[in-house]
Amino acid sequence: MTSALPSLIVLGPPGVGKGTQAKRLAERLGLEHLSPGQLLRDALASGRPLEDNVRAAMAVGELVPNEIIDRLVQERLEQLGPQRGLVLDGYPRTQQQAETLRGMLARLGRLERRPVVLWLEAPREELMRRLRHRAAQEHRPDDNERAIARRLELHESKAPSLLATLARWTDVARIDASPPADLLTEKILNTLRERAAAGGGATSVGEQPMLAGSSRRPNSGSMTWAAIPVRDELPPAS
After folding, report:
1. Domain 8-227 is of which CATH architecture?
2. Cα distance between residue 19 and residue 16, in whole Å
3. How large is the average pLDDT for residues 64-68?
4. Nearest Cα to 194, choosing from 207, 209, 212, 220?
C-alpha cells in the first residue's frame, strides 16, 4: 500500500525557520511532523543509550553520525501508517543521508508520489540574527556562538551535493525565507496550491509543466494537495 500523499521535506541552513514552518505545515495540512533533531534531543533526555560523542558533537555544532540519525528516522517512519502524510524537518542534511532516505521511503511505499523539498533560503546575516535570538530565548546547547558558525559552515559545504542528489528523485522548490513567519507560511502553502493546479491535466511526466520555483516536473500521481483542507488558524511562531 502506498502513501496517499507525497512527503514534504523542509530543508535549509540553521536559523532559516525550518522547524517553525514544518510544524505549521503539519498543523495546517494535517500531516505528521517528523524532526530528527527533536528525536535526538528526546533520546538524549530519556537516557536512551547512544554513542558517547553525540552530546559533545551537538554542543560544538558538528553533525551527529549518519547512522544514528538514520536509525531514529527509520524507527519513526516505520511507526507511521502507510496512508499518513508527513513533513520531514531538517533531514536529510548530507548526500549520504539523502540516499538512505530514498531507500527508506521506497521500502515503505512512499515514493509512488515524488516527495516535495521546500528549500528555504535567507542571507547569512539574517540567519545569525535569528540564531542569536533563539539562543537567548531557548538556551539550547547547540546555539552557542562557536556552534552557530560551525553549523553554517557545514551547511554551506554540503548544500550543493545534497541539492544535486535530491533533485534526482524529488521536486525541489527554493523559497526565500526572509519574510516574517506568518507570511512565509502562506507563501509555502501557495507554492503547494500552485503545484496542484499545475499538474491538473497532465497524464505523464513528460507532458507536465514545470512548477513555479521548482527544479523538476511533478509526478502525475502526486497532485493531491488541492484535496487537503487548509486550516485557518496558525500556531504561534517558535
Report:
1. 3-Layer(aba) Sandwich (3.40)
2. 9
3. 85
4. 212
